[in-house]
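Design request, tokens follow.
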């Protein structure tokens, strides 16, 4: 879409500068080009024409003006520059804000310019009967000449002229960005006729501009007189397919989306139904004299007569009447707090803004508020939510990031960016506001310049710095808390007081809470952002065999490393329980080495991109070539002793394993299966084969070669070695060896390829242990004869009939 819009913009300018090289249609020559003044650069065509040819050409040169077909040009402006037609309202409000900024700026030196209209505001109203939408402001307004100049010349900007004039005088132009000529024409996305009434602060006469988006426009004195006081009113006669904008809810939504942070009040005309009580007018009634009633009244006492008169004088009867009441309601109540200094804001200010901006009921987890200066100046306020949204990683690679919104002078430019923040930071919510971001023809088409890349780089750095500080603060606070607790425990007397002190120990878990929600995003950053891989690696957290409950950083791991340890060890698996019970941990646990637990599906990919940290190579304890320091020499002592047994097992297992060797990593388990260094681990194989569109054939080359490792000190291995030496062709020995392989396969995290054969071996082993024959079956139970059942049933019926004396 971005390239398509750029292409259309190119066509737009190409049409403006369409050249007519041929003569007029009637064949007459165009007026000759005046002779060039002395010193003026002549047309040169070196490489195409010789000097003599250029001289001859100069005598017949004729001048023609670039031309553009106005109707086609307007069609491109209306339909090509904007991808969403609701932005017309944003453009009109932006123009109004520019006009209000200008009058406010001028009023600083001349307060009289505000006249009888001191209010600086924008009003939006609509008429469902006339099908019109009006946007009115109390800005600087335009004279007749300015209406012709600003609205009659495409891309003409009165605001730009004003800013340039002020800048030339050495004053601050407030960086006004309005491109009134182009932004204004977006109204024809929804309207087929537009009426602009404007009253300039310097002109006593109000003028009207009208056009139907064709070749012509009309400008004249407003016959209604000065109805505005000051400012501009744009009335759009909506097309039939644009009547959706005659809806209060729709207009409110657009204003809140694009312009809720403008400095000036935006008032929307609202209509509400109000129920009122109105008196019912009494009707004239015939008076009937009741003689009996009169007699009773005579007997009433003076006090009773007074009470009666008071009751008669009660309020008249009323009825409920519903009517429509029109009023102006401010839409942009939320203040752009990012424009203020962070020192002047409280946590409540940030929390209130975040809840309104992000439509979240919870307070933000953390925030970063900063101003960037340099090549481009901008302000930013970014938040990290308390919880990850349920669809955060759905369509991760195709869904645009809509959480970070770009504003230019508090007007929303876009809320869909693929590269503004890296995709792995798509959980960050916030605003970026620039006063001098370079814009092209419309506010919607941003210049894809180096400036945008600079902004993206600074935003990413700020988010990562915030996360790093959060992580460091947690580690420092927790270390200080542990030291303080230890001191208190030493000072406490008695075991009960020590336990009480330990229970009161408070942990800083702010980064841990973040990691539990968004840790996957940091891992995705390791895979996608090579430039920030080192920074992201410091944010990684893993549970270990020494810290199975609290995830630690790689820095903490390196700090805890044994002096003899040369590698960072890790193990991957489907769950924490699985890796904690893995036999691969036996030797490293005995040596006191710490092992990272990689139990997330992304962890395997992370280790492929992060092969070392702080000069320490990451090494899997489930793969071949594990170096534990000194254990390799012990293995050599057993290799000769078990040479025949390992050969027996290799012949039995065949192509299922590449080799059978003595293990350097086992202490209590009899056997294990490890994978080669450059293939998938058992966990990775599980992940890949579980993919919805996995093709076992295409990924076969990634399947790791397996090595079967035996524990030479284990009783099962030594006894099986003895039995295989006595009779290696024994069915029982082979079954036991196969069961050993099956058990090692499951313990190593692989799936069994032949479950039926496995079940058969288990059954044979059970039968052997129970000393029974698998083929021997007990005699089949026999059901009662059907005849006997019928005779018994008949007997019961006969007895029942006898009891009831039925013949």
């Amino acid at each position: 879409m971005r390239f398509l819009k750029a292409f259309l913009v190119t066509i737009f300018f190409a049409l403006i500068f369409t050249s007519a090289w041929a003569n007029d249609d009637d064949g007459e020559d165009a007026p000759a080009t005046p002779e060039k003044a002395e010193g003026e650069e002549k047309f040169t065509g070196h490489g195409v024409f010789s000097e003599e040819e250029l001289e001859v050409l100069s005598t017949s040169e004729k001048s023609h003006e670039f031309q553009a077909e106005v109707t086609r040009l307007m069609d491109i402006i209306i339909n090509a520059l904007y991808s969403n037609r609701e932005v017309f309202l944003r453009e009109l409000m932006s123009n109004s804000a520019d006009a209000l900024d200008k009058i406010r700026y001028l009023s600083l030196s001349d307060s009289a310019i505000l006249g009888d209209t001191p209010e600086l505001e924008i009003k939006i109203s609509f008429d469902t009967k006339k099908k019109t939408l009006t946007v009115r402001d109390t800005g600087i307004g335009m004279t007749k000449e300015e209406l012709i100049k600003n609205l009659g010349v495409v891309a003409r900007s009165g605001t730009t002229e004003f800013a340039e004039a002020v800048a030339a005088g050495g004053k601050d132009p407030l960086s006004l960005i309005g491109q009134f000529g182009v932004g204004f024409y977006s109204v024809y996305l929804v309207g087929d006729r537009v009426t602009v009434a404007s009253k300039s602060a310097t002109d006593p006469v109000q003028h009207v501009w009208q056009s139907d988006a064709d070749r012509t426009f009309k400008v004249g004195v407003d016959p209604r007189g000065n109805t505005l006081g000051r400012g501009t009113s744009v009335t759009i006669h909506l097309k039939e397919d644009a009547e959706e904008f005659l809806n209060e809810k729709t207009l409110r939504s657009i204003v809140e989306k694009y312009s809720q942070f403008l400095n000036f009040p935006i008032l929307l005309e609202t209509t509400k139904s109000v129920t009122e009580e109105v008196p019912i007018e009494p009707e004239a009634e015939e008076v009937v004299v009741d003689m009996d009633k009169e007699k009773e009244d005579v007997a009433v006492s003076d006090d009773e007569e007074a009470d009666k008169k008071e009751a008669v004088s009660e309020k008249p009867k009323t009825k409920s009447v519903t009517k429509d009441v029109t009023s102006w309601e401010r839409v942009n109540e939320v203040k752009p707090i990012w424009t203020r200094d962070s020192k002047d804001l409280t946590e409540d200010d940030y929390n209130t803004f975040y809840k309104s901006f992000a439509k979240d009921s919870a307070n933000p987890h953390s925030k970063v508020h900063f101003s960037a200066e340099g090549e481009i100046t901008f302000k930013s306020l970014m938040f990290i939510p308390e919880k990850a949204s349920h669809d955060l990683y759905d369509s991760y690679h195709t869904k645009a990031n809509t959480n970070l919104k770009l504003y230019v002078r508090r007007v929303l430019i876009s809320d869909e960016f693929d590269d503004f923040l890296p995709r792995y930071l798509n959980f960050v919510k916030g605003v970026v506001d620039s006063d001098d971001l370079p814009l092209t023809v419309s506010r919607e088409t941003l210049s894809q310049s180096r400036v945008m890349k600079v902004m993206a780089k600074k935003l990413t750095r700020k988010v990562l710095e915030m996360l790093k500080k959060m992580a460091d603060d947690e580690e420092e606070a927790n270390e200080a808390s542990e030291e303080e607790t230890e001191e208190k425990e030493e000072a406490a007397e008695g075991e009960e007081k020590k336990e009480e002190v330990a229970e009161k120990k408070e942990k800083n878990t702010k980064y841990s809470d973040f990691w539990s929600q968004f840790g996957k995003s940091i891992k995705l950053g390791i895979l996608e952002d090579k430039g920030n891989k080192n920074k992201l690696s410091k944010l990684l957290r893993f549970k270990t065999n020494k810290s199975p409950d609290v995830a630690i950083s790689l820095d903490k791991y390196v700090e805890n490393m044994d002096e003899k340890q040369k590698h960072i060890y890790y193990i991957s698996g489907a769950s924490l329980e699985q890796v904690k019970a893995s036999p691969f941990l036996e030797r490293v646990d005995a040596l006191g080495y710490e092992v990272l637990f990689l139990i997330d599906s992304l962890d395997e990919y992370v280790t492929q991109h992060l092969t070392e940290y702080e000069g320490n190579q990451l090494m899997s304890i489930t793969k071949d070539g594990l170096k534990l320091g000194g254990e390799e020499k012990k293995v050599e002592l057993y290799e000769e002793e078990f040479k025949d047994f390992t050969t027996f097992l290799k012949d039995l297992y065949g192509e299922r394993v590449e080799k059978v060797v003595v293990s350097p990593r086992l202490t209590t388990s009899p056997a294990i299966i490890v994978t080669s260094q450059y293939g998938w681990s058992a966990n990775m194989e599980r992940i890949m084969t579980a993919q919805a569109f996995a093709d076992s054939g295409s990924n076969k080359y990634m399947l790791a070669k397996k090595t079967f490792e035996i524990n030479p000190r284990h009783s099962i291995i030594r006894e099986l070695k003895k039995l295989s030496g006595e009779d290696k062709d024994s069915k029982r020995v082979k079954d036991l060896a196969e069961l050993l392989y099956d058990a090692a396969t499951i313990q190593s995290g692989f799936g069994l390829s032949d479950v039926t054969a496995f079940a058969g071996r288990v059954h044979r082993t059970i039968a052997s242990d129970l000393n029974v024959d698998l083929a021997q079956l007990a005699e089949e139970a026999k059901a009662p004869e059907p005849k006997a059942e019928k005779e018994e049933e008949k007997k019961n019926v006969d007895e029942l009939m006898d009891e009831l004396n039925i013949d």
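Comment from the thread starter after seeing the answer: thanks! The longest helix spans residues 450-491.
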